[in-house]
Amino acid sequence: MKVKLVNDQVSRPTAESATKIHDVISHAPFRSKNGSAGAVTMSAHQVYKSYRAGSQLVPVLEGVSLQVRQGQFTTIVGQSGSGKSTLLHLLGTLDRPDQGEIVMNKQRIDNLPARERDRIRNQDIGLIFQFYHLLPELNVLENTLVPYMIRHGVWSYMRQRRRLHEQAKELLELVGLSHRLTHRPNQLSGGERQRTAIARALITRPKLLLADEPTGNLDARSGNEVLELLRQLGEQQALTVIMVTHDERIAQQSDQIIRLRDGKVVANAAEAA
Ligand SMILES: Nc1ncnc2c1ncn2[C@@H]1O[C@H](COP(=O)(O)OP(=O)(O)OP(=O)(O)O)[C@@H](O)[C@H]1O
Ligand SMILES: [Mg+2]
């Protein structure tokens, strides 16, 4: 992985932060039950997706193929409306392709029953959405803990509440939100909502992070800090990151760029070191 800070002038909290985040998440008790803590790779094979708008069928993805290796930092770029979020949703098992296959860890996942796809998503994938998708009635701390509650159930959560809260607080401190723990989403700025979403995506210690413009609503400095955090996680935890971005400078520094145009991948360049 060779993603660097776009602006080298910003402070680099990362040596310390990364060690800390490593501690926070590596002490997390939750591991995949089947012991599949190893490599996560993802691939898409000739994926097609259309949406129906009234009587019209709008083709969005028309034969997209890609491959992402463990620990890689991959960026997806393309104009607004080119299908980046659509592709990320398919990779993240939130939606299914009309045709084609999505494979994760050598297992085809797009055709699994919804329940099984939910399990995979909750267990192995961290998702950061373009529009946050925070729960409005929960505060920052509670939103961060939602994936844990979904995975382990409320009783398990209640039993370990104190420890989990400490863990979530440490993550929130890392994304600079320790002063906003009890704020609800409508009491946060856009960047603060995005940072809450980032903490939420990391609480379950995923091996694969799918991020839809995670720095799009952050100022340059916060954006760089988030990138650096993801980079450090990639190196220390073999976290595989697939990130949508409009920022060509970020894309240029990633391991692989997937460029979408007219429903197809126009360049899938494995950038040389
Ligand atoms: N549920 C839907 N129903 C109909 N059309 C849709 C739906 N979701 C997305 N689209 C259309 O599919 C196309 C791709 O949308 P998508 O959100 O994937 O684009 P994007 O590349 O992420 O764009 P942006 O950079 O603006 O976020 C757009 O033209 C959009 O209008
Ligand atoms: Mg989008």
Q: What would the keywords be for this entry?
A:
alpha/beta; Rossmann fold; 6-stranded mixed β-sheet; 4-stranded antiparallel β-sheet; 8 helices; 10 strands; globular; disordered N terminus; binds adenosine-5'-triphosphate; binds magnesium ion
> What sort of overall outline do the alpha carbons produce when their principal axes are compared?
globular
Strand order of the largest sheet: 6-7-8-3-9-10
Bound molecules: adenosine-5'-triphosphate, magnesium ion
Structural domain count? 1
Note the beta-strand portion.
Answer: 15-25%
Q: At the first level of CATH, what is the class? A: Alpha Beta
CATH architecture: 3-Layer(aba) Sandwich
Q: Would you mind describing this structure in some detail?
A:
The protein is of the alpha/beta class and 273 residues long. It has a single domain, classed as P-loop containing nucleotide triphosphate hydrolases (Rossmann fold), CATH 3.40.50. It contains eight helices and ten strands. The chain has helices spanning 14-26, 84-91, 114-124, 140-159, 161-174, 190-202, 220-237, 248-252; strands spanning 42-53, 56-68, 73-77, 99-104, 107-108, 125-128, 208-212, 240-244, 256-261, 264-270. The strands form two sheets. Strands 6-7-8-3-9-10 form a six-stranded mixed β-sheet, with helices on both faces. A four-stranded antiparallel β-sheet has the order 2-1-4-5, with helices on one face. Helix 1 crosses helix 7 (220-237). The chain is globular. It starts with 13 loop residues before the first helix and ends with a strand. It binds adenosine-5'-triphosphate and magnesium ion. Adenosine-5'-triphosphate (ATP) binds next to strand 1, strand 2 and helix 2.
